[in-house]
Every structure is written in C-alpha cells, then in structure tokens.
Amino acid sequence: MANTHLDMRKIKQLYRFYTQGVSKRKISKRLGISRNTVRKYLDLLIKSKLTSEEVDALTFEELRILLDIDHTHVTTRHSYLFDLFPIVNKELKKVGVTRYLVWESYLQKYPDLVSYSRFCHLYKAWSRNQSPVMRFNHKAGDKMFVDFTGKKLSIIDPGTGEVKELEVFVAVLGASGYTYAEACPSQKREDFIGCMVNALNFYGGVPKAIVTDNLKSAVTKSSKYEPILNESLLAMATHYNTTVLPTRAYRPRDKALVENAVKIVYTRVFAPLGATDFYTLGALNTAILEHTAVHNKTNFQSRNYSRLELFESIEKQELTALPVESYRLRQYVMGT
C-alpha cells in the first residue's frame, strides 16, 4: 500500500457509504479523496467479507492490521507467518492448545518471531479473510451440529410412480467440519433421533455436546435461557453420555457452521443427484454417502488438507467411545 494511509475514520465512512448504495464517485466527492483511493480501500474491505457494522466495531489498530493484508505487504514483512497460519489454525483445534503455546513453539524455530501480541493481531487479521465460520475456534471432539436442509430430495414409488419428497438431515463436527448427510421420511422425533444415531455411528464416537436447532422434534418448549427438551432426546443423550444444546432463538451464528455445511451439501450432493431417479430410500442414501465422501476428501480452500484428514488427525481420538448397543427409541404412553 502507499506510504501514507487514509484516516481510519474516513475508511469506516467510505465503507458505510458504499454499503448504503452510494456510488464511488459520490463517496470521492463527499470525503474529498480520489476515486482510486476509494476503490483501493473498498477492494480490501470487500475481500475481508465484513459488514459495515463489523468494520465500525473494529478498533483503529485492528483496522490497520486488516488493511495491511495485501500481497506486497505480506511478502515483504510477514509472508512466513501468513504461510504458517493455516497450520496454526489446525493446531488451535486440539484440546488444551492455546495461542500462547503455539507462539512459544514457533519462537524456538524463528528467533526473530514477532511479539505475542503482534502474533495474535496478525492471526486475527488473517482469520477475518477466511470463511466466516472459521472464526470460531471449535475444539476437537467438543460439538456436533445438526439440522435439516430447507430443500428436499425425492424418490419415485416403483409401483405407483408417485414422487415422494424426503427430508435431508445434515451433521457436522465443529473442529474438522467432517460432514454426514442422510435422507429420511420426516423431521419427526423418530426420524430425527434415528439420523443422529446414524451420524454418531458414522463418526465412530460421541462428541461432548450435540447442538440442534429449536425443532419440534427436539424442544418441547422454547426458552431464551433454558429450553425444555423432549424425553426421547434426553434419553438418547443419556444413553450416549453427551449433552444436547438447542441454539438460541434469533442467534444465527450459533448454527452458522451447520448452515454453511447445508449450503455446501446443496452444491456437492443435491446438484449431482438432480439428474438421477431413485426408487428406494436405501439407494438414495447410498448415493448421498458417496457424494458426501467426495466432499469430505476435498481440500479446504486455501489449505492443503481435507475435512477427512483433519478429522483423522485431531478429532477422531477426542470423541468418546460409542456404547455397545445403539440407542433405540422408547415409546411413552400416558397411563389412565
């Protein structure tokens, strides 16, 4: 970037104007800066994927660090750090690992390493340029996020030719992003719990908590502070020695990870299956499993490892062992 930087207040203003629909020409006139300068800072801010509100919330120091991330600056001053940050991000997912421990370990390899506070600032700036979901540092074996997709898949009844729509369940582990998907007849309690049991069997272990949306099949009574779970879900959680955590109402970031996984499932599972007719639920789920496996083996963007590799290297061993028998749904009958 240029040797002299624009005032941080003006940078926040120009981004605010831009998100309000003001043209670059008008922004230039209002703030008394050239259109090239407006374009340069807007390019950097747009790449950060932050909203105007999030940029306004940044301190001046955080904003400076964010805007320093361009190719010229990185290659001359901090190129080795930005090359290491994908590995750092992977290390931080391990249980008990902190930024300070990682910084200390790299200090032995790089005696001229930046200070710990500067290391944290630069890592935070790097993180902001990654997928928004990656900003959460989920620990290995900590949580499994589950939800149903909004769109549906279908099978054809071979006898009548009737098209039957099916729900699609998605589960994703917080640290590795390792994904499981399955079609089922409905979102009712028995199907929902059955899908979760299948997901745990697929992962070969149990996380410390399962995070679910406020579905009727999961929550008897919603509450901002203490939602009431249905008896069957509690019994399943007890059987697997885990906890169920319903997401908070009107808190979309609580389930951002699984919602992002759902979007990817649309692209990597729904789209390839769209041209194929299926006549049984089993055949459809076999195809879903095959495409999900390809997705899990595909490297993350800007990283040289996949969800499967991350799962096997840091998360699999942190899951607790499955019980000898899988959970079987109990039917509750009111006595008279």
UniProtKB/TrEMBL annotation:
Integrase catalytic domain sequence ranges: 128-315
InterPro entries named among the record's database cross-references: Homeodomain-like_sf (IPR009057), Integrase_cat-core (IPR001584), RNaseH-like_sf (IPR012337), RNaseH_sf (IPR036397)
Alphabetized Pfam families for the sequence: rve
GO biological process: DNA integration
An example molecular function term from Gene Ontology annotations: nucleic acid binding
Extent of the signal sequence: none
NCBIfam families, sorted: transpos_IS21
Protein name, as recorded: IS21 family transposase
Annotated organism of origin: Aquimarina algiphila
